[in-house]
Amino acid sequence: MTETTTAHSPLEDAQALAFGVTMAAFGITILTHLGLVTGQTAGLAVLISYATGWGFGAVFFLINIPFYLIGYRRMGLAFTLKTFLAVGLMSALVHLMPQWVRFDTLHPGFGAVLFGMVSGSALLSLFRHGASLGGIGILALLIQDRTGFRAGWTQLAFDAALFAVALTLLDWPLVAWSFLGALVVNLVIAINHRRDRYIAT
């Protein structure tokens, strides 16, 4: 017996986008409250914001601009528009959320794990509805298409360089907790984002 799937409706896409963006912004709020960093484009934006004092939201939005053209060429218009909307909304929410959420006590170890779980669920929601938070993942797929070099290796190399730079800006315990958070994000995605098991489109 074969199972059939139907495309998500616009309303389903909208709620998934709202959930994903809100959870991603909450994750970054946890991360920056603790002074931690993460991988990929978000991690680059966090490091730049720490080094310059510029707001994460504006940096994250600007960094992603060059990747939209790559996304359009490889993924199509719908993906690019959803991603542009997700990045824009997340950038705005990250700016606003510290006014709505404050932490009296948050251990960096638990905060790192919480960040990873929240951010992983956010990315899953976006991925399953044809969107992303842009950036290095799109570039990695383009490099894979052009050269055959695996996208995962490109992302791993980028993250290794990012954490090496982080060691020059942050104390090593913060970088260690940051690595834990990034590991949790990737585990959530690796375990749950499987087309052979989860067939919703």
Order of helices and strands: HHHHHHHH
Strand content: under 5%
Mean pLDDT: 84
Cα gyration radius (Å)? 17 Å
Which shape, going by the Cα principal axes?
globular
Distance separating the two termini: 19 Å
pLDDT < 50 stretches: none
Helix proportion range: over 70%
> How many H/I helices?
8
Number of strands: 0
Whole-number count of domains: 1
Subcellular location: Cell membrane
Keywords: Cell membrane, Membrane, Transmembrane, Transmembrane helix
Main location: membrane
Membrane topology: Multi-pass membrane protein
Describe the fold and architecture.
The protein is globular. It has one domain (10-100, 108-192). The chain is built from 8 helices and no strands. α1 (10-34) crosses α4 and α3 (56-75) packs antiparallel against α4 (77-96). The longest helix is centred in the first third of the chain and has 25 residues, at 10-34. By secondary structure, the protein is an all-alpha fold. The chain crosses the membrane at residues 16-36, 42-63, 75-97, 109-127, 174-191. It is a multi-pass membrane protein.
